[in-house]
Amino acid sequence: MTEFTVQNLASSVWAFAKLLVQDEPFIEALSAPALRTMSEFDGQQVANFAWAVSKLGLMDVTLIDALSSQSMQLLDVLGTQEISNLSWSLATSLITNAPFFNALASRALPRISEFDPQGLSMTAWSMATCLFANQPWLAAIAE
Prior knowledge:
mainly alpha
């Protein structure tokens, strides 16, 4: 695994999640290099990895925090689908991450018109699941 690129890491964990393969030793082997190289993950890689972690029900707080932190670094360049997917993934992990949702609400608000209805509803669901209420974001969705 030490020779895996960040793309290899993200693609591998995504494939295991897509197939619902719960190979804990393999996933753990992917997690360590992912943590070491998280700052190199681009938007799609962090979104795919976060989705896979959530889909597999992994409760690795360190990994989820690293994914959240990298997501916050990328919020300005992420597409709206990536933002929606990340918010769903982080909410589904049931590890409330107020800094991520604060950053999402403030930095994605100017781009709210770019979200499609599914993205808006998924992001709203994610915030509600984490008991995070951002009034400007909710008001903008209601318009």
